[in-house]
Each structure stands twice: as C-alpha cells, then as structure tokens.
Amino acid sequence: VSFLDLLINNKNGILSTSVHHKPAAEPCVVPFISDHPRHVFSNIIQAALLRAVRYSSTFDIFEKERRAIRLMLLYNGYPSRYIDTHLRQFFGRSLSKSSMLPFIANENQFLVMKSRLLPQLSVKERETQHRIAAARLSKETKDTNDKEKMTTITTISRQNKP
C-alpha cells in the first residue's frame, strides 16, 4: 500500500516500510548544471537521505534506497565527489572518524543513526508544538481565572446572606 511517499508492505504479517517512488516524478531532481543557488543541491541530497532514514524500516531497505539516491543524483549530473562529500556529512555523526566509506555497515549502526536523526523536530514541528503549548497555557489560565471568579462569587453570595 502506498500513501504519499511512503510504501507499506505486509509479508506474512510482517510490516515493512520504504520510500515510495512515483513513476511520473522519479528519478528527476534539479539538475546539477542548473542556475539554482548552490545550497539547493545540498538540500536535495540531505532531504532524500533523511526521507530514506525516516521511511526505511530495515537496514537492507535503507541500503537499497541509498543506492537509488546515488544513481538518481548521478543521472541528474551531480559529480560523484560532490555526492560522496554530502554522504559523509550526512553520515558523519554515525561513522567513526577513520571511516572512508560513506555508508552505514550494519543494522545496529543504522538504528543508532536513525535514533540520532529522527528525534530532531523540523522548524514547522517546533512551531506547531509551541502553538499547542501556548494554547494549553492560555486555556489553563482561563480555567484558573474562571474558578477564581466562581470562588469569589460564591464567597460574596455567602457573605450577603442574613
């Protein structure tokens, strides 16, 4: 079953998730020779890798997607050295300093990388959480004020009774 850019598979009751590639959109991204600002190319790589980490339920699925990302970038004119540099930057937190290979080697390293990358909220998620917290605080303040008013009214009413 595919939903947006997520593919969910059920094999004998075992669910797995991966990136869903829409045939009409893949493997096209902004070509490296375009006149876009340089940060756009870096962001394309980072976003594709983050999507792969987020949606891949296993290391094997992630590795397949990482290779597909590399091929997509090469197809769109990204230099191999540029791709490798950005892969190293992305995986830098999960690799040892002496590693020359820009990839994760096993399921454990994949899970460590995933746990380090995914708890990070996006700007939009942080803003949404801030708005929710502000709304809750506002509601709690209003509820407290309403209770204080009721207490005051009750106290005044009792004092006025003969």
* Overall body shape: elongated
Helical segment count: 5
Helix content: 55-70%
Class of secondary structure makeup? mainly alpha
- Say how many strands there are: 3
The amount of beta strand, in percent, is: 5-15%
Name the strands of the widest sheet in spatial order.
Answer: 1-2-3
> Which radius of gyration do the C-alpha atoms yield?
25 Å
Oligomeric assembly: single chain
Tell me, rounded to a whole number, the average pLDDT. 79
Order of helix and strand elements from N to C terminus = EEEHHHHH
First-last Cα distance: 73 Å
Largest sheet: 3 strands, antiparallel
Number of domains: 2
Unreliable stretches, pLDDT < 50, 5 or more residues? none
Describe this structure in words.
- The chain is mostly helical.
- The chain is 59% helix and 9% strand.
- The protein has helices at 38-55, 59-75, 80-91, 107-117, 123-160; strands at residues 2-3, 6-11, 14-19.
- The protein has a 3-stranded antiparallel sheet.
- Strand 2 and strand 3 form a beta hairpin.
- Residues 151-162 have a biased composition (Polar residues).
Question: Which terms would index this structure?
Answer:
mainly alpha; single chain; 162 residues; Helix-turn-helix domain-containing protein; HTH_animal; 3 strands; 59% helix
